[in-house]
């Protein structure tokens, strides 16, 4: 890496209007580092910086900015500057930006593109959101079966300049139907007279443009490729998807799942960028829903008020009992949801999972029960905290813990299956959701056990 | 994709010892699909299937099996067969397998490799676990500055056969020091007489072999590359890392974080494959830790036993109050931990985050307080559930909710910063961990508020 330019130095150069130096120093950085540096400036200053750069370089830098920053910058640029950059952007990055813009701005910008790029942009925007079509690029090279290696190399030399990848070339027939792919390595290693049809590998993997992006992730994960072709319903080659975009999808999906697991709506924007109002809204919805659900605990507790007034000591263990159910449920739900997300567990595995979780729940419940009983016993040796019937109380707590932990583990592991079966994202059964569900039943289990064990003594 | 062979058909072919047909039908599938099919068989049958295939193809299939399946299969194979496959594997996949094997098995297998591959394997295993060195491959091509495009193409034709990628070639000096990289596209597009030194891009990004794999992920995310070179402490080129391995690391890291967030140790193996004993152990540790922490709630409740016996109605709202704190804490912790993991939030942002969370906590607490007060008021209109002092109870619950939610939000968001500052993985401050922490303080807040508001009436 070359000597690093700081944002302070860049600001000074900008103030001194030393455009030559700015251009020289930005050019010496990688596009990613330049973008990082430029991002620290205000949109208006950014627009000024971009005007100093040759269009090709400006576009490269622009593509490395996060979509939110691109959006602000597009607003700060004149229409002509914006159109110039959009025209030169690679189609997949452009689609990612356009779909974030307000419809009117998007339409105006698409209108200002060159006719060729406008057609490409409109075609990609025509695919549904989160479909593979939206992440495609049209920058690939096609070959014909009857060409030889020399003709391919000549074709690359004359048409390869703007293509996103030359690592894999696509063989199509006269109607544009995808026939196979050829890796550039095969062309390079082959004698110059070898025919394309003898170099292709005959095992073609392709994606379908209207499919969900998750299926693209699954295909890249399974086949370890860096690029895959995309076809339409008739097998016609319509674009390619590259693995760097897949990396982004994987991270986004993990973020969505994690946020849902934390008991809120997915943010869809970076934490530091989202407005406070939206941040609160995304959290309030679930928090209120959980609160209303949790109100059932007050109703349940209300029913047991008589028991509590007879044996106040029962109330003392309520938080301990219900939180143990919540924690074990949260563990089970998290495990299953993640295993589903990465394809380790499918709907048909529910029975296998249930057996595992019944065993786990029983063992975990037993462990906690033993600790809980020991705690009460030891305390009772040295104090009078739990009264003369401490042993019965210990038994009540122990049995309840086994029941509650088993129930938590079972609900936590089965709820994701139920949701998935109903067509709802399993990640919705978040740790807090399961905990709330288990809290109410946990109380009922606890007071039911107490009713049996303590009948005639404390109750 | 060709006509799909089912595992049943393959089993029949195997039983009929129709080796020609087996070989023909497996060859027609992609390696990933073949591996998926073969995975359904017992290790001994798998070993038999692999013996039928030419070594090159067997190795390709083998590389697509999950590491756990590879491990079982290696045990089922004879030493010679195993050595043959390991010898032909790409070095990065081989390291991933070897590091999973028991030390003795690993040593025996390394010993049986060809001298050349043994040296490579030992060199890679010498890097620390989770370091970039462990995910490197040595299958790259190097160039010299003074070569021209024609010489490069000749070099590729004679040495490129076994290289994992030909998309990027690396320019080294006479001492093996990495000078720059050249994309194959530049070579292909250039006139045949153009010199390498005029084709290289002069902005070199490289990884360091001893660095953590997370830094490789960060570099791939930032620079959108498909392959990056790795250097040692002296700048010497020692290997390359390809993006398909990065995809795996990203998924593994997300899985680890999600499991930690669910309140357990990371499993490190697929849910369906892990033994029940290990599964329970990974969960029991945290569950016991949380249980012991939660015992403080029993201690706290013990202190307020007198209050509860005077006003049993107080006990009724305990689960509602503490779970609201837990839920808001879980939201905040999840948000911050994920934002830290993907680099959106760093240690220095703590104050900015704190301001946002104080505001969010207050608003969220207010919303819940209003709902809680309304609930108590409405119930009191139609029943006598909360007695004559229902308004005071409503006020107690409302104020407590604001306090508890604010406190949950603050602890949930600040704990990850504290842990990170102490060098502990922030994901350790899981939803259940934060909930446990907030439960105890939530009780204290609630009874303290009750002590003030209800003094002279109920207490």
In short:
Two copies of one chain form a homodimer. Chain A is mostly helical.
Keywords:
homodimer; 6% strand; Tetracycline Repressor, domain 2; 3 domains; three-stranded mixed sheet; MgtE N-terminal fold; elongated
Give the percentage of residues in beta strands of chain A. 5-15%
Largest sheet of chain A: 3 strands, mixed
Radius of gyration of chain A: 31 Å
Largest interface: A-B, 117 and 117 residues
H/E element order of chain A:
HHHHHHHHHHEHEEHHEHEEHHHHHHHH
Number of DSSP helical runs of chain A: 22
- What oligomerization state is this entry in? homodimer
Low-confidence stretches of chain A: none
User: Shape of chain A from CA axes?
Assistant: elongated
Word description of this protein:
- By secondary structure, chain A is mainly alpha-helical.
- Chain A has 3 domains: 7-126, MgtE N-terminal fold, CATH 1.25.60.10; 142-250, CBS-domain, CATH 3.10.580.10; 276-453, Tetracycline Repressor, domain 2 (Orthogonal Bundle).
- In chain A, 65% of the residues lie in helices and 6% in strands.
- Chain A has 22 helices and 6 strands.
- Chain A has helices spanning 7-15, 19-28, 31-38, 43-52, 55-64, 67-76, 79-88, 91-98, 103-112, 115-125, 149-159, 184-189, 196-199, 213-223, 243-261, 276-303, 305-310, 313-316, 318-341, 350-382, 390-421, 431-453; strands at 142-143, 168-172, 178-183, 207-208, 227-231, 237-242.
- The longest helix of chain A has 33 residues, at 350-382.
- The termini of chain A are far apart.
- The mean pLDDT of chain A is 86.
- The interface between A and B is large, with 117 and 117 residues.
